[in-house]
Amino acid sequence: MEENITIYISESNKGEEQIIINKQYKFNFSHSRKDNSRVYKCSEYKKIINCPEYISVKTVILRSINKKLPSNVTTFNEIPNESEYYKTERNEDFMIFKSSDLVIFQSPFQAKLFKKYNNDIFVDGTFYIAPKFSQQVFITRTYVKELNSFYTTSYAILRNKKQKTFKILFNKLIQILIIIL
Q1: Contact call for residues 140 and 122 (beta carbons, < 8 A)
Q2: What predicted TM-score, i.e. pTM, was given to this entire model?
Q3: Which of 26, 145, 149, 152 has the most other CB atoms within 10 Å of its CB?
C-alpha cells in the first residue's frame, strides 16, 4: 500500500525556512555551503529529539567505540603506562607524561605546532568530558595565522585542580617545547 507524502514549507520561530514531511519530520535550515546548496538539520516534528535514523547511527557508533575501548579503568592509578591507544597511526608515542595526578597526551605533530605557534596559545579546562575518576580535561590550542584556524596541541587528564598539578602540567609542556627547540 502506497503512503501519500504531505510536504509543508513554512517559517520557523527564528524566521528561517523549514520543511515538514507528513507532520512527522522537520528539516530546519542550518547553513549554506560554498556552492550555495543548503544544509538542513532533521528532527521529529513537535518533539525535541532527533530523527530515528540519527539516533540509530549514533547508537551503533557508540557501541562500536565502547567495544574497542577498555572499560575497566575506574581510578586514575589504573590508567596503563603502555597501550596500543597511546600510539598514532604513524606508530609515534601519543602519551608523553604520566604521574599520580596527571596524564598528558601530545603527538609529535602537535608538539611541532606547539613549538612553531607558541605566541598564541589558548587553554580550556573542561569538566563535561572528564572521565568519572578525574576532575578535568585540560586542552591547549594554538592559532595558526596562515590557515586562520585553531589546532589542538595537547590533552591532559587531571585528577584534581590543585595548583601543584597545574605547575607540573605547565612545566612538562615547557620542557617539551625546550626539547623540540
Answers
A1: yes
A2: 0.58
A3: 26
